[in-house]
Hints:
It is a single chain. The longest helix has 22 residues. This protein folds into 2 domains: 59 residues, lambda repressor-like DNA-binding domains (434 Repressor (Amino-terminal Domain)), CATH 1.10.260.40; 128 residues, Umud Fragment, subunit A, CATH 2.10.109. β5 and β6 form a beta hairpin. By secondary structure, it is an alpha+beta fold. It is built from 8 helices and 9 strands.
Amino acid sequence: MELSIQCKRLRQIREELNQTQSSFAEQLGVGSTTTEYERGRTKLTGKLVLRLLSDYNINPLWLYGESEQKYLDPRSKEVSPSVVTVDSDGFDNILMVNEKAAAGYTGNLDNNDFFERLPSFSFPIPEYRNATFRCFQVEGYSMVPTILPSEWIITKAVEDLNQIKDNKIYVVVDNEGIRIKQVRNEQHMRSLTLISLNEEYGTELLAYEEVKELWEFHSKLTKELAIQSTKQKLDVIYEDIKIVKAKILGQG
Length: 252
C-alpha cells in the first residue's frame, strides 16, 4: 500500500531537522517514536499537527498536500522593492541594472533619483504586465554554463521569502551587493542557502535579516548563439579563469 502524502511529509520534516524517530517523537510529545505515523499505521493526530505548526511553522494544508506553501511563519520577511517607476500607461517599467549601476544598487534602494536615472523598457505582453520586473546584467562565472557573464536576465519581484521556490534561480540583494544564485529556503533556520552552479564556487548561508530584495529568474537576453556545445563553452570559460588566476598569482 502506498503511503499517504502526510506520512511522507512527516518523515521529510524529521529528516530535514536531522532528528531520529525517537527524538522527534519526544519533541512533538507523541510517544516514544514516530515510526507508526511515518508508516501510516497510525493516523496523524490533531495534537501532532498543531505541534508541527506551533514548533516548526508547518502549514497543515501543505502537510496534507493541499498547499504548496510549506511554512506559515509570521516572522517571515517582506522583500518587495521600495522603488518602482511606471511608463506613460501606468505600467511598471522594467529597469536595467548594468554592472556599473550594480555597484551602487544596495546603497540606493530607497533613492528615487537613482532608479529614475536607470534605463528602462517594457514589453507589450500580458505576462509582463501583472507584476514588477527588473533586468540585471550578469557579473562573474558562478552560474555558468546556465548563465554567462555579461548576459542580461529578466527577473520578477518576490514580495515575501515564503514565496521562494526551492532550487530556482534568484537575484539576491543584500548589504554585500547583488548575487545571482540557485536558492533553497531553510525556513527552520530563517536563512537562505545560496548555491553556485559552477562547482568552483562555494555554497553559503544568508540570514533572512540580511536580504533586502529578492528577484525570481524569469528569462534572459543573450547574444550567444547555441553553436558550441556546453562542454566547449565550459572549456573556454575555465581556460579564461585559469589565465586570470595565473595573472593574479604572478602579481603576488
